[in-house]
Design a protein that fits this description.
Elements (H helix, E strand, L loop, with lengths): L10 H4 L2 E8 L4 E6 L11 H12 L3 E10 L2 E6 L14 H8 L3 E5 L34 E6 L7 E3 L7 E3 L9 E4 L6 E4 L7 E6 L4 H12 L3 E4 L10 E7 H10 L3 H16 L4 H11 L24 H14 L2 H7 L20 E8 L2 E9 L5 E9 L5 H18 L1
Parallel strand pairs: 4-5, 5-12, 8-10
Antiparallel strand pairs: 1-2, 1-16, 3-4, 3-13, 6-7, 6-11, 9-10, 14-15, 15-16
Length: 412
């Protein structure tokens, strides 16, 4: 096909910088390359790198907890598993394991703790669910869930540990309800009045190892002590597994969950280095599994919240080819958002049958889409479409992308 069929003249594209690579994995050839060797801020396309990391390191089930027992003492510590008491996942056996133990319980704080925010994250996003803090032993998704009921004068919250930290804005007369956390402490101001519409909101709490112990005591109704490290005379640790890895991958990819992405990278780091340092996982992957990418990835976090991440479209295409080699196509298409059907592209790329299975990425003035395109003839192509530094609404960029990708779907 002619170049004009891929990058048609669209005013929206004139305001920014685009990169587009289309690849035929069956023929092992690039069909089209426009700025494929240029670096872009990838936003949540970074999660594709995190996904591949999990595939290579974590296995089929998520390591949820490590523990060791000596006489009447059980010492346990976190692996970074984000699913514990998370409202989006089925209850795992971790809760019942801790509830049923007869030994004295001791929580061992990690020797290394990641900064709660990743490098280059926006500090003033602290109140929004997509910036939940990272931690070794996450609970409740590291957020407080607020439920505003039209018939109640204050919200229901989970975990209830924070109920004494609520402060009402008594003079509020607005029609919508919301909650805000103090930037420096776990104190929450809410705005609500009886008669407002039902609302639900997730607000990150400030994570600490002391808070983990307090929440566990409340949840298990047991005494738990925090210790600095596992005593040397205790036997080697055992591991409890929680949920299938695909459960985390699917939520991360479908709704672009930043918290899960960050925790997956930390869990991977612990598997290969016994430390929850995300950088360890990144360097391991670059050295052992990503050394053949066309361009070295500049990669700093698991979610893509950081503007420091920089990838080229042709490297993302190569990454997707490597993912395709690891995951059967049917399973892969179930995990990725499907155009017109699921995830972040549910309202875009509609057809009688889904033809786009891809990961979005969006930051201010940046929108990406990278994944797989199944043509009307049934051929599967790999693509990465990146847009940075535009000044028009993202919807205009998306409409231009949709026109181009649909043309490929119909004609290739």
């Amino acid at each position: 096909m002619e170049t004009e069929e891929f990058l048609q003249k669209t005013n929206a594209f004139d305001t920014g910088f685009q990169g587009f690579v289309l690849y035929d994995p069956e023929k092992e050839e690039i069909i089209y390359d426009h700025n494929g060797d240029k670096y872009f801020t990838p936003a949540s396309n970074t999660k594709l790198f995190t996904f591949y990391t999990g595939l290579k390191i974590l296995g089929d089930s998520i390591p949820a907890l490590k523990y060791t027992i000596h006489h009447d003492s059980l010492v346990f510590w976190g692996t970074g598993d984000p699913s514990f008491l998370h409202k989006e996942f089925e209850e795992s056996n971790v809760l019942s394991f801790l509830q049923d133990r007869q030994e004295h319980l001791f929580y061992a704080a990690p020797k290394y703790s990641e900064e709660h925010f990743g490098p280059g994250w926006s500090w003033d996003d602290y109140n929004w669910y997509y910036s939940a803090e990272r931690g070794a032993f996450p609970m409740y998704g590291n957020t407080v869930n607020f439920k505003f009921d039209p018939g109640e004068n204050q919200p229901g919250i989970l975990p209830t540990h924070f109920k004494d930290s609520l402060i009402a804005n008594s003079g509020y007369t607005g029609k919508s309800s919301t909650a805000y956390r103090d930037r420096s402490k776990n104190r929450f101001l809410y705005k609500h009045q009886i008669g407002n519409e039902e609302e639900e909101q997730e607000v990150p709490f400030i994570y600490s190892e002391n808070l983990v112990v307090e929440l566990l005591r409340d949840t298990l109704n047991k005494e738990i002590e925090k210790i600095r490290e596992v005593p040397d005379h205790f036997p080697p640790a055992k591991t409890i597994y929680s949920i299938p890895s695909d459960s985390l991958y699917k939520r991360m990819l479908q709704v672009s969950d930043n918290f899960i992405a960050e925790q997956l990278l930390m869990m991977s780091a612990q598997q290969i280095s016994d430390s929850l340092k995300a950088e360890n996982a990144i360097q391991f992957m670059k050295k052992n599994h990503l050394q053949d990418l066309p361009d070295e990835p500049i990669w700093v976090d698991g979610s893509g919240l950081s503007n420091y991440n920089k990838f080229t479209p042709r490297s993302v295409v190569k990454l997707l080819e490597k993912i395709q080699e690891e995951v059967p196509m049917d399973r892969l298409f179930e995990l990725l958002p499907a155009g017109g059907e699921s995830g972040t592209i549910k309202n875009w790329y509609k057809a009688e049958e889904p033809y786009i299975f891809a990961k979005t990425g969006t930051l201010s003035n940046a929108h990406m889409l990278s994944g797989f395109l199944r043509t009307k003839e049934g051929k599967v192509l790999i693509f990465s479409f990146m847009n940075n530094n535009y000044t028009v609404p993202s919807s205009e960029i998306k409409r231009g992308m949709e026109k181009i990708l649909r043309n490929i779907y119909l004609n290739y």
